[in-house]
Amino acid sequence: MTINELIERNNELRAGLNEENQKFYDDFLIYARTTSWLKDEQAVEELLLNSLQDILKAQKNGQSAADYLGKNPQTAAAALLKKLPIHWESFAKLLFYVFFGYLAIAFIPAISVPGKVVDLGAYLLAGLYLTLAACLTTWLMGTAVTLFQSIRLPKWLKTVITCVVGLALIFPAFAISLWLKTAVRFSFDGWVGIATIVVMLIILAIYQKIAKANQFINRPIYYYIIFQALVGIGTRLPFMEGLTSTKNGKLVLAALLVLGLIIFWLVSWRMLKKLKNDDK
After folding, report:
1. For residues 164, 165, 169 and 174, what is the CA-based torsion angle, rounded to 10 degrees?
2. Which of 43, 109, 146, 158 would disulfide-bridge 74, Cβ 3.0–4.6 Å?
3. pLDDT in tens, 112-171
4. Mean of pLDDT over the chain
């Protein structure tokens, strides 16, 4: 079965769990999926499905998931994940996703406005920081998830803490790209800008193709980047250059950029709503 078929089958079988086993397996699954960045995704999903099938068999025999796999779902998941070898291709993809993903999200919109000098060096350093932060986060993820779930706090407070920690990790990257000045600065005007955007879009297409399991989640980001890229290409075409230099032209350009953000949020809301409905 493919990864998506394994996930769908997993979702179908989980409906057969009783309330106690459902809670145990949900914690088991969340921990496994959030701490398996360096494992082969196919192998992880097969492990999750096999574990679920074993729990269902034990349940029929009057045995709980905790009795079958162990009292702590995180410990049980960690023990099973350790048996899977490190998948270096997954590690390489992680580095590529983070580094290029940041450049695509931040750099393409930055050069969508012609005539703007862009500090490429700052963006590269910000991408490098995020890549190192992702490696550190991946290494500490298992301990962090276990510790966080063991702390008794209201759900809303845990959500706030998660958002604050996430913003704290991401903020330095944006601070570097916005305020750090390097000597590697370019003005991506005219055909140079168009060629740069086209190259980025080609790399993005390759990125989208190899990120099959995450296409659904990443789709709003793709739409946003492509929209910004089209604006960037359009404003650099010879017959548009004079228009964008006028006051009305700048207002139209600003309106287009805002429209891109609105489209991004609408698509994101629709995707999240569909995910929520699918979970039900």
Report:
1. 0
2. 146
3. 777 778 888 888 898 889 888 887 877 776 666 666 666 777 777 777 877 787 788 888
4. 78
Residues with Cβ < 8 Å from 180, sequence gap 6 or more?
119, 122, 125, 126
Cα atoms in the Cβ-side hemisphere of radius 13 Å centred on 7? 12
Give the Cα separation of 240 and 84 in Å (integer). 55
| pLDDT band per the 50, 70, 90 thresholds, residue 53 | very high
Q: How far is CA 167 from CA 147, 180, 258, in A?
A: 20, 19, 23
Distance CA 162, CA 156 (A): 10
Per-residue pLDDT, averaged over 67-87, amounts to: 82
* Residue 253 scores a pLDDT above 70: no
Q: Tokens representing 192?
A: 């140079």
Closest CA to 213 of 41, 26, 95, 13: 41
Angle between helices 19-34 and 73-82 (to 10 degrees): 50
204's CB contacts (< 8 A; 6+ apart) are 104, 222, 225, 226
The reported pTM is: 0.61
Q: Which residues pair with 187 in a beta bridge?
A: 117
Burial of 238 (0-12, 13-18, 19+ CB in 10 A): exposed
113 C-beta neighbours (distance < 10 Å), count: 19
Residue 10, both tokens: 């997993």
